[in-house]
Every structure is written in structure tokens, then in C-alpha cells.
Amino acid sequence: MWTRAVVYFAQPIMSMWDQQLTRWVSAGLVDAATAERIRAFEQAEEKPAGQRWQVLVALILGGILLGAGVLLFVAAHWDEVSPIERLVLVVGMLAVLHLGAVFAGERFHAMATALHGVGTIAAGAAIAMVGQIFNMQEHWPAAILLWALCAAAGWWWLRDQFQQVCLMVLAPAWLISEWTYRASVYHGQEVYLARMIAVLAVVYLTAFVHTRKQVVFGVLFGVSAIALVVTTNVLTDGWDRWSWSPHPALPLGLRIGSIVLMLLMLAAGWWWERRSLLPGLVVLGMVFALPWLQTIVHDQNEFSHQTSTHTEPSLFAYALVAVVSMVLAWWGVRERSRAVVNYGIAVFALTVGWFYFSSLMDKLGRSLGLIGLGIVFLLGGWLLERVRRNLISQMQDQPQQEPA
Fold this sequence. Notes:
Layout: H1 2-10, H2 16-26, H3 32-45, H4 53-76, H5 83-104, H6 109-133, H7 140-158, H8 161-183, H9 189-206, H10 214-235, H11 252-272, H12 277-289, E1 294-300, E2 307-313, H13 315-334, H14 338-364, H15 366-397
Antiparallel strand pairs: 1-2
């Protein structure tokens, strides 16, 4: 017990390379003399240890609470101040955040990163407030562009991962917003919007699997994983959901513009990681096919005996999503990415559950439906876990591929 306690409290002091080196010496992979030379070299080059995860969580929560408190303070006193005082308040808020980050930079780099990050996020609110103060012409995509320029300036100046994530989210958001602003008066634009977001999501899912910037990969992967599932669900509704709109159909020019944006996203992903092009093209094909994979269902009201029709995803839609999830899992094995493999397996499981709830459970009755649901969870979960472990094992047995 005392040994475990000493090891736990020594972890902040003992470097990771020292722990690994000790393991290698114990396993006979490195002799003691070589280990001492490596240890002397690393100690000479060693920098102060990074922050523990508790400190990082505290900084993230503190940044969120600080930003929320500032916004609430401004909102509470908004009607009590003149337009010039409002402008000074908004600009002063940003100045305090960034100046505080500058003063904290030398002593506490993580605090400086958090304050700069809150300042970049608050810049978006400040842009919207300034526009409201002076009643500027409403063109909300321009506000996103200015916000993206703030993030670009922050990344150019600071070169930290948080500013890079903000820029990578806001830059495509501006392009998509400009397209949406022009297409909002036409019906069917929701389908093309979902397609663009899905393509952007798969690019961010796959183009950064080999990056050493774990914050960039983690944030983009998490956001993109959710976005791809949501947009796929929107696309499976097909065109029927939007056909009631009284607005005219989406013009050809805007359709071509959305396709060009999707191709630019795939090209950017290919430029960053060339092997990401394959899953990108697969998802591109899926998002264009899903709205058309519909089946017509006739429903008869048991009281009025009137028949109504609607569309729902066909069996081919479920099969296509399942195949794409397996392609993502296979690609993750090929690229030795555990995150992509797990995501592909999880999406496949969601697809099976989605198909069961949408197409089978109502037709089996309550008791049989619950029995079948239990079988799906138990047997399906066991089979998927076996498949996942086999894929992870294959991934570990493959030789390491050098990033492009």
C-alpha cells in the first residue's frame, strides 16, 4: 500500500520517460549503462513538468464561469448605460482578459492560455454587441467572419492549440453561413446544409489522427463525431420532410456552390492528411444518396378509415449507414487510430438499434419487442465487442505507418 502511495504522489515529479526507461531496464531491453546515459541526457533537456489534469479541469471550468459571469454582468447593466459606455465596457472586457493573460504568461502558461481562449470566445459576443449598439446593417455571416479573423490573429500570435481549434471551427462556419444566408429563402436547403456539415465532420474526424496536438484532435473529433450522427439522421428524413415549404426550390447555382464547398473541404483534408480522402469520399457518396433512399408507407386511421402516406428510410438507407461505419472502422485499423475504430463500431451499433426501433419493434408487439431488444443488446453487444477487440488487435499487429 505504501509503495502505491509513493508511486502515486511521485508521478507529478517522475517524468514519463523515466517510468518507461525503468520498465525497459526491468524487461532487459536496455542495459543499465545505456539507461544512465539516456537519463542524464533527458534530465539535462527536461523542462518543468506539465499541469496535472485537476489543474487543467479547474482552468477550463474557471474560464467558462468567468466568461458566463462577464456576459451576465453586461446583460444585467445593459439598459443602464449609454451606447458609448456600452462600447467601452465591451472593449474593456476583452482588454482585461488578454492583458491578464499577458501578465500571467511568464509565471503560469496554462492560465494565460485559458484567459486568451476566453477572450477569443468573448470576441464573438463583443462583435454582436457592437453591431447591436450602433444598429449596423444585419448580415450575421459577416460577424462570424470577424470572429474567425480574431481567432486567426490569436493563432498567428500565440500558436496555441485552443486558438487553432477556434479558427478551424469558425472559418468553415463562415463559409457555410454565407451559403445559408443566401439559401434560407428556398426549400431543400436543409438537406444541402446537412451534407456540408457531414463532409466537414468526416474531414475533421480523419485528417488529424496522426497529429501530435492532442487538444486539436480531441475537440475536433468530439464535435465532429456528434455532428456526423446528427446530420446523418437529418438526411435520412429525405426530401419529404421539407416538401411542405411554400418557398421555391433551391436554385442550381446554390446547389453547385454547396458542392464546391464540400469539394474544398475534402481538398483541405487531403492536403493535411492525404489518406483521409478515402473516408471523405465514402461519406460524400452517403450524404448524397441518403435523401433518395426512402420508402412510401401507407397509414390507415382506425377511426376514420382514411389513408395517409409518408416516407421513411428504406432498408438500403440503414445498410448504407452500416457499411460506411464499417469503412470508418476499417480505415481506423489501417491508420492505427483506436478512436476512429471505436467510433465506427459505435455508429454501427447505433444503426442497428435505430433500425430495430424504427422498423421492427412496433411490428413485433410489446412482449416480443422487449425480448428482441434484450437479444439485440446482449448478443449484439457481445459480437460487436469481439469485433472491436479483433480490429484493435489487428491494428497493433500492423507495422507503424509514417504520416504523410
